[in-house]
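Can't paste images in this forum, so I'm doing it all in text. The chain is below; anyone willing to post the predicted structure tokens underneath?
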Amino acid sequence: MKNKNRKESRIKIQLAVLKLLHDHDVESLKVIDICREAGINRSSFYDNYSDVYDLAANLKEYLIDEFIQKQTDSQNQPYLVLLQQIKQNPAPYKIFFKFKLQNQIAREAIPDEEASARYSEIFFRTGLANVISTWLNEDCGASCEEIAKIIEYYNTARVTALS
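Text version of the structure:
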């Protein structure tokens, strides 16, 4: 039961942070404001995080790991699986793009390789991040299948061009 309450508190905190980040930077967020927005008490916040920076660091780490794991786990239609995940739970992914974590993933995930392949990978990942970010900002209006089809088309073209 305690784990369930903790998970619920984390979700409330994430949603509150997402809402507050529309008008504030992470540096200006205050625990009291997050708690008020989330409808939780300060002890619930501190059961999960030591401070706002701990919250931000944990969210960043979680979101990066989750994004990479989804890509790794779903060899068959990885983009469709990722898009479905985003549509089911958009809040953390909105935070993901608010923190500009797509840039960090691109840096970490692109190995030092032949220049043309490296630049092609950077180009693709940047485009992928922008497509997903735009789709998310439009409340996932287009179907997951439609967006996945577009992404797969450009991924296939990229791979073919490098062959």
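The mean pLDDT is 81. The first helix runs from residue 2 to 21.
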